[in-house]
């Protein structure tokens, strides 16, 4: 111990050493250097991307040499960059079309090809393996190669010429190091284009429009869980009293029409497993005495394994690719000449799915929208005829539960064992190992769950694209037709996708025809399951009339059609096109009738119509269903006492907004917001008590009509047990919808456009956010919904708008969503967006004089 008088030691304080100061200084400078390097790297990256993108801009003026041309080709671009191509020969024309399309859309074309063939993972990584596996199982590439190989020699030569034009651009861009920036970002080069690649791109659209297999599988699962034919019929209506088939026969729009007749022969079916797949999955009935009933306990797992594979094909409410089209004879127009309008509803992407063009050579002059990667004009007009499409939704796919012996064989129709066809597919995956897929197939088609890795009953997909006798693609003949006789003769060979075609011509004729090869149901040796809405009676030849026995296709003249109807008006919008008297089942599924009903109410019987009236209808956002549901929700709140209903000031405000709403689904409407969110909340409340998690799998073209019928008839079977009445249920749906949508306290500020937005993004945006910021539109408020003529979902909408005016061919209008170019630095990248968004349009010049007047750039392609 220290002495008492000693001075105590002071605590020792160690001063900060110069070494520590140096370390901190070094760390600070290092961090600053890293930040500087990061900023420099970002700046260099932005500079590089800008330079690379600018380098890929196409030449628009002057002379450009193309090998393979026989004479110079003139390319005049109008104010929106649409190429008006004039060639001395058709061979030169299609070569130029391939070259010019590749100039603007080469990476999109390659992405389309990879999407169809199942090659996306090779350049984008493992996230796309599931998609690629589905495409390999569906055999799109092999089918395209077969179709291309079986085209008539003269037709195949046209496709080859188009491919040659694409390859000329690829070679030039590679030599100049000016490929589109997407190739450089992903560090790969496009392989040469082929005619078969063009067919693959075409089949991509067929797949989008005619693929209903997953819906059939999920319906089978839901039907089994419901185990009640009436409940199933409620969820899956086929046709309605609101339908307007395109017959040209005047209809009293003030009176509901009778519902389509429905057979209830099998309503007493009690065996759940026997009803597992009513009319949608068939037992492959092979040999004498074989049963058509799917009774194995593994059937549900089989269906789910197949659905899992096919789930890479998007199926969602509001995602049904649709369209509107109509044609009006001169007796109802201001000019005395026909008007034809078409807006095709497809995924809205960047760049646009369509590329506009005007193509002219001796014997060929057509203008409209083309599909990048495919020659000719898909929809539009020539000098004499005009046409537009909507999806018919015909049933062209069947699913069969097959019987295998475990030794690589399946049982055929002859009760004998036959070897499975096996296609060995290798999926290359960027940054990972190859994925090997052995696709097995029977005589029906590929086994869609053969790659699931589970021992489930195999399910085969039969699809009309697999029919080796179907190889015609009549686009060229449609483009050069000069009258209805020639045009309809070309349509007769149309195989896929199934479509509704409206037509007009310079002679004043109008017409409609359903097209596509639709199979006559198999009723003898391959027994379908029953479903009340479409009665295909087992064991009969009800539809096996002379000329079209089961296993063949309905003749062209049998398909719904009309020519110069007395009413002078024809329209379709993906809803039912058959009358009650039509004896044949074309489909199991239509789209809701609200759009077609509204089109008829706006146009049928009116006179003095002009092109301006056409675009007004195309952009109409009134929804009778939403307004009706809004009134029903308001009534429910009024009649639900207490804090859960009219005792809540916020609920009373919601009711007031809905009851006074005009039904227009505008971006500034609070009522539209309340109704839409309430309807979204209602379905789970109704379905989950009966279906559990499978409620999320319910998708149907007429689900909106199903909802209307269930709610407006207050069907007791659908009222959940925890609600005392329908008013209580509907009131709760409004409350839950507002809660889930995070509605503000002041409901008047909860506008539809505040959350109903569309963000059109480049496909690479999720992989490369910088690309998304440069190329995307950003979130834009959107009016309309899936029940308005302007059909808008979160990712789907009018991909183009077209009106043909035979009194002024140069005044006919056409516009796409964004613009002709896929290059953000092009003047034509997004120059059409404002017109599309605001619901206006502009003329597409067609005659030489009009084209010359609007020419902004002139390029001469020289041999």
Describe the overall structure.
By secondary structure, the protein is an alpha+beta fold. The protein is built from 23 helices and 26 strands. It has an eleven-stranded mixed beta sheet with strand order 1-26-2-3-7-8-9-10-17-18-19, with helices on both faces. Strands 5, 6, 20, 23, 24 and 25 form a six-stranded antiparallel beta sheet that branches. The longest helix has 38 residues, at 18-55. The chain is globular and about 80 Å long.
In short, what is this structure?
By secondary structure, the protein is of the alpha+beta class. Helices cover 34% and strands 15% of the residues.
Question: What's the arrangement of secondary structure elements?
Answer:
Blueprint lengths: L17 H38 L6 E4 L7 E5 L5 E4 L3 H28 L3 H4 L4 H10 L1 H10 L3 H23 L5 H6 L8 H16 L2 H14 L2 H7 L45 E3 L15 H12 L12 E6 L10 E9 L7 E7 L2 E7 L8 E4 L2 E7 L5 E5 L7 E3 L5 E3 L1 E7 L7 E7 L17 E5 L11 H6 L3 H8 L7 E7 L4 E6 L45 E3 L5 E4 L21 H10 L7 H8 L5 H15 L10 H11 L10 H22 L11 H10 L13 H15 L16 E2 L10 H7 L4 E2 L14 E3 L1 E6 L7 E4 L16 H6 L9 H7 L2 E6 L1
Parallel strand pairs: 1-26, 3-7, 4-11
Antiparallel strand pairs: 2-3, 2-26, 5-6, 5-20, 6-23, 6-24, 7-8, 8-9, 9-10, 10-17, 11-16, 12-13, 14-15, 17-18, 18-19, 21-22, 24-25
Helix pairs in contact: 2-6, 2-8, 5-8, 9-11, 16-17, 16-18, 16-20, 18-20
Question: Main attributes?
Answer:
863 residues, alpha+beta, 6-stranded antiparallel beta sheet, 34% helix
């Amino acid at each position: 111990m220290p002495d008492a008088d000693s001075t105590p030691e002071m605590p020792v304080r160690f001063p900060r050493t110069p070494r520590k100061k140096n370390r901190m200084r070094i760390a600070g400078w290092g961090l600053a250097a890293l930040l500087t390097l990061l900023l420099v790297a970002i700046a260099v990256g932005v500079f590089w991307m800008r330079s690379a993108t600018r380098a890929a801009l196409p030449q628009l003026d002057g002379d450009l040499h193309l090998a393979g041309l026989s004479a110079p080709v003139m390319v005049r671009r109008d104010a929106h960059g649409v190429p008006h191509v004039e060639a001395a020969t058709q061979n030169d024309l299609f070569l130029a079309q391939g070259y010019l399309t590749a100039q603007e859309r080469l990476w999109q074309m390659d992405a389309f090809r990879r999407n169809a063939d199942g090659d996306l993972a090779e350049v984008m990584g493992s996230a796309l393996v599931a998609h690629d596996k589905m495409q390999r199982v569906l055999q799109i590439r092999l089918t395209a190669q077969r179709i291309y190989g079986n085209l008539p020699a003269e037709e195949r030569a046209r496709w080859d010429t188009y491919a040659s034009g694409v390859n000329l651009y690829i070679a030039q861009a590679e030599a100049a190091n000016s490929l589109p920036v997407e190739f450089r970002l992903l560090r790969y080069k496009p392989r040469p284009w082929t005619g078969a690649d063009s067919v693959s791109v075409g089949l991509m659209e067929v797949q989008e429009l005619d693929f209903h297999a997953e819906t059939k599988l999920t319906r089978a699962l839901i039907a089994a869980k419901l185990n009640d034919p009436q409940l199933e019929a409620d969820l899956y209506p086929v046709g309605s009293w609101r339908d307007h088939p395109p017959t040209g026969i005047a209809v009293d729009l003030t009176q509901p029409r009778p519902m389509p007749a429905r057979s209830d022969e099998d309503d007493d079916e009690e065996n759940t497993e026997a009803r597992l797949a009513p009319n949608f999955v068939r037992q492959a009935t092979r040999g004498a005495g074989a049963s058509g009933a799917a009774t194995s306990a593994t059937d549900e797992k089989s269906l789910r394994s197949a659905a899992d594979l096919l789930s890479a094909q998007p199926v969602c409410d509001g995602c049904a690719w649709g369209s509107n089209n109509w044609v009006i004879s001169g007796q109802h127009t201001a000019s005395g000449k026909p008007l034809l309008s078409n807006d095709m509803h497809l995924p809205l992407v960047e760049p646009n799915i369509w590329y506009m063009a005007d193509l002219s050579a001796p014997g060929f002059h057509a203008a409209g929208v083309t599909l990048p990667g495919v020659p000719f004009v898909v929809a539009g007009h020539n000098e004499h005829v005009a046409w537009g499409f909507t999806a018919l939704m015909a049933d062209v796919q069947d699913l069969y539960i097959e019987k295998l012996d475990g030794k690589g064989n399946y049982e055929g129709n002859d009760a004998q064992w036959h070897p499975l066809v096996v296609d060995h597919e290798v999926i290359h995956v960027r940054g990972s190992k190859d994925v090997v897929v052995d696709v097995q197939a029977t005589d029906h088609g590929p086994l869609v769950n053969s790659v699931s890795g589970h021992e489930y009953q195999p399910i085969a997909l039969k699809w009309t694209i697999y029919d080796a006798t179907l190889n015609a693609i009549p686009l060229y003949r449609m483009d050069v037709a000069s009258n209805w006789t020639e045009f309809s003769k070309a349509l007769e060979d149309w195989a896929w996708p199934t479509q509704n075609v409206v037509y007009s011509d310079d002679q004043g004729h109008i017409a409609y025809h359903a097209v596509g090869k639709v199979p006559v149901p198999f009723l003898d040796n391959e027994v379908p399951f029953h479903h009340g809405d479409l009665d295909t009676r087992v064991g009969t030849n009800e539809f096996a009339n002379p000329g079209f026995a089961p296993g063949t296709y309905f003749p062209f003249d049998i398909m719904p059609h009309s020519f110069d109807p007395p009413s002078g008006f024809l329209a379709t919008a993906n809803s039912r096109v058959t009358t009650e008297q039509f004896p044949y089942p074309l489909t199991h599924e239509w789209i809701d009738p609200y759009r077609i009903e509204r089109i008829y109410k706006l146009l049928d019987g009116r006179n003095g119509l002009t092109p301006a009236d056409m675009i007004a209808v195309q952009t109409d956002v009134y929804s009778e269903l939403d307004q009706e549901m809004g009134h029903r929700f308001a009534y429910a709140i009024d009649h639900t006492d207490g804090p859960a209903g009219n005792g809540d000031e916020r609920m009373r405000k919601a009711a007031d907004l809905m009851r006074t709403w005009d039904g227009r689904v505008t971006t500034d409407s609070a009522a539209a917001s309340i109704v839409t969110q309430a309807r979204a909340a209602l379905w789970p409340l109704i379905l989950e008590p009966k279906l559990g998690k499978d409620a999320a799998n319910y998708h149907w073209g007429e689900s909106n009509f199903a909802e209307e019928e269930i709610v407006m008839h207050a069907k007791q079977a659908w009222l959940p047990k925890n609600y005392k009445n329908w008013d209580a249920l509907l009131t709760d749906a409004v409350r839950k919808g507002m809660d889930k949508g995070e509605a503000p306290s002041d409901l008047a500020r909860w506008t539809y456009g505040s959350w109903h937005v569309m963000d059109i993004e480049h496909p690479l945006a999720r992989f490369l956010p910088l690309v998304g910021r440069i190329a995307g539109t950003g979130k834009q408020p959107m009016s309309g919904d899936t029940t308005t003529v302007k059909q808008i979902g979160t990712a789907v909408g009018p991909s183009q708008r077209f009106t043909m005016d035979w009194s002024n061919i140069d005044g006919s209008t056409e516009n796409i969503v964004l613009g002709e170019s896929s290059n953000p630095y092009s003047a034509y990248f997004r120059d059409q967006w404002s017109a599309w968004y605001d619901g206006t349009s502009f003329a597409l010049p067609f005659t030489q004089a009009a084209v010359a007047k609007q020419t902004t750039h002139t390029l001469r392609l020289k041999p």
